[in-house]
Hints:
The protein is an alpha+beta fold. It has a single domain, classed as Copper resistance protein K (Thrombin, subunit H, Beta Barrel), CATH 2.40.10. It is built from 2 helices and 6 strands, in the order αββββββα. The strands form 2 sheets. Strands 1-2-3-4 form a 4-stranded antiparallel sheet, with helices on one face. Strands 5-6 form a two-stranded antiparallel ribbon. A hairpin with a 4-residue loop joins strand 2 (37-41) and strand 3. Helix 1 (2-23) packs antiparallel against helix 2. The longest helix has 22 residues, at 2-23. Copper (II) ion is lined by residues 38, 48, 58, 62, 64, 74.
Amino acid sequence: MLKNLAIMASTLAVAGAAFAVDMGNVAQKFELKDGSTVYVFKDGKMAMEDRLGRTVGMKAGHVMETKDGQKIIMVGNELARLEMIKAEKRGN
Length: 92
Ligand SMILES: [Cu+2]
């Protein structure tokens, strides 16, 4: 019993570490006027989430406007990367 608990604790620690590393790849987050969110990764590529938190695709080069009126040009379309981060957040 005690042994099982120890194994579980170390598994959780590993999952937590993986999550921390991946979130570390997100350099910046912007909220857009329409309520969606743009994640900018450290390499400058981006992924988007709609206002309901669903990962959405957008063509590179598309101009987006943040809540505070900044213009951002979409770079990349890192759907899989954002999905991976979200899956780790859910604990899958
Ligand atoms: Cu976009």
